[in-house]
Amino acid sequence: MTKEQIFDFMSNETLAVLGSISPEGLPQAALVGIAVTPDLEIIFDTVKSSRKYRNLTANRAASFVVGTTREITVQFEGVATELSGEDLARYQKIYFAKWPDGPSRLSWPGICYFVVRPRWVRYNNFDRRPPEIVEFEC
Q1: Which pick of 10, 30, 97, 129 has the fewest CB atoms within 10 Å?
Q2: Hey, what's the torsion of the CAs at 25, 28, 33, 34, to 10 degrees?
């Protein structure tokens, strides 16, 4: 399993479970719509009134599970960055290609975008016998 194959899997998924840590140190999870870059960066939008926004601006550590309909998943740990300026425009282009309704949310109060860059990735395919498991640090 190569990085390109993992990208192919992730880019065919639309949703992922995001894990973050509250300011009180408690784990929290949310389902988010995602887009993925060839560098395995995950892009998503949220609003500033959400728990995930509060969590990620206080503690940038983020985790994901991508793939929820079969026994094939990518587990992902990384660092979240709120996007602005030229980076925002560049990543929005990628996000909007995956989510054509994304521009309609630009009018939402507090809409913002994050990119999460991977530090650790694990691909699991338990639909195969024997299972295929590939893990790497970025």
Answers
A1: 129
A2: 40
